[in-house]
Amino acid sequence: MAELAYAYASEAYPARVRGSNPLEGTNMEKLLEFIQSQKLMVVASHDEKGVWVADVYIGVDEKGTIYFISPEDTKHSRMILKNPNVAFSIAWFDSNNHKDRKAVQGLGICKPAENEEEIKTGVKLHNQNFQEFKETITLEWIHNNKWGSKVWTLKPTYMKYWDDEIYGNNESEEFTLS
Questions:
Q1: Phi/psi at 172 (nearest 5 deg)?
Q2: What three-state secondary structure class fits 108?
Q3: For every one of its 178 residues, what pLDDT tens digit does the chain have, with 9 covering 90 and above?
Q4: Claim: this prediction has a pTM higher than 0.85
Q5: By the 8 A CB rule, do 88 and 53 touch?
Q6: pLDDT, tens digit, for every residue of 3-39?
Q7: In this structure, what are the phi and psi dihedrals at residue 152, rounded to the nearest 5 degrees?
Q8: What is the spatial distance between Cα 11 and Cα 123, in angstroms, rounded to a whole number?
Q9: What is the average pLDDT value for the chain, to the nearest integer?
Q10: How far apart (Å, rounded) are the C-alpha atoms in residues 20 and 176?
């Protein structure tokens, strides 16, 4: 089981870890609920030539692993294959209330799905968020599509959660997963 610790203000406190889900407990559950409710993420990759950002459609499982589908020959995918260390951001705001904002900025390890179970999970989560693709994005399509699209997993190692409703003037809380 992954050990979880989080930092709030400038002090570190051990988080409660219950069951087999390292994201359960304290405000980590709210962070997970937030990222699971979102459908778009910005992922930043880099190589020896520089940094690149891409917007990707996402699905998030109960452990906080982020899944997306992308061809292997895109700029961000080629960079990730060379260096799986990425940064990412997921943001939301209420356009009628500028004091109601939520966002996650994070770091993690990103790579193509390693087994059939991860591929199935990625396809399932994608199609839950994007019903219009469920007839097109299938396991068979992932294995045989002409664009070389793959399911990718991003396992966060660090997340900063900004939520005006929870934190008010304190703004955010930081979580480190190992």
A1: -155, 170
A2: strand
A3: 233 333 332 233 233 333 445 555 578 899 999 999 999 999 999 999 999 999 999 999 999 999 999 999 999 999 999 999 999 999 998 899 888 889 999 999 999 999 999 999 999 999 999 999 989 999 999 999 999 999 999 999 999 999 988 888 888 899 888 6
A4: no
A5: no
A6: 333 333 223 323 333 344 555 557 889 999 999 999 9
A7: -115, 145
A8: 39
A9: 86
A10: 17
Would you call 79 helix, strand, or coil by DSSP? helix
For domain 4-177, the CATH superfamily is: Electron Transport, Fmn-binding Protein; Chain A (2.30.110.10)
Greatest CA separation for the chain: 50
Structure tokens at 125: 């989560």
3-state helix, strand, coil in the chain (%, to 5): 25, 45, 25
Q: What string of DSSP letters covers 4-51? A: EEEEETTEEEEPP-BTTBTT-STTHHHHHHHHHH--EEEEEEEETTEE
Which two structure tokens, joined as six digits, stand for 35?
């990222």
Structural tokens at position 81: 């294959």
123: part of which helix (H) or strand (E)? helix 116-129
